[in-house]
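[job 4417] fold queue: 2 targets
>>> target A
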Amino acid sequence: MDKWLKTGTLKRSASRTEIRTTDLAATEITVYQQDDNHEVQRPTDCPVQDAVECMFGEDHVQKIKNIPLSNSTVSRRIKDMSIDIEATINERIKKSPFFSIQVDESTDVSDLSILLVITRYLNVNELEKNLLLCYPLIKRYTGEDIFNAIQGYFCENEIG
């Protein structure tokens, strides 16, 4: 990276061999990709590592090797982020002097009914709007069932 910052361009700082190696490594990356959204195989001779070593050196390769790419790690982090977002929204609602909800039922592409609860609340003198709840409706629900589901969520999270 320092080479590029000093010279300003890749063409001036890299030899033809380095450029060819990088191009070859970049085209080979697609071979290692899987169909899962979060999963990439980590072969011992990863083309990304080859490109990084060629352009930046061995010390940067070690940083690349430390990046976790397992499906379970990425899935866990996504779940942790969603839990954190939900907790943040719930705390903001609790701190707000008032809030309102909008309830809507929608059907997704697999013909599954979904209950959506959108909330508006005051956060630091600004009105915010967020999705509070996305609840699958597996069977036929009445208005009372929907009310009880929302009330149960509010009681569980000590809102209101």
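>>> target B
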Amino acid sequence: LCLLRSPPFPPARRCVICMLEFAYGDPVRFLPCLHVYHVGCIDDWLMRSFTCPSCMEPVDAALLSSYETN
């Protein structure tokens, strides 16, 4: 999992969890499948489900505690 300080534009223009558009400086997280979400949104999601909310690809629980920050 990767944490960034600004989201990629395009393709992802909005977080599919909260449905808010990404703004410059928002902390975002990429999953291994390359889908991107607000950090707070995806962290809460992954506490309940170990799958990507967009593609349902499994997310390895070991990655949740050892993500790379940029």
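[job 4417] complete. Note on B: The first strand starts at residue 2 and ends at 4.
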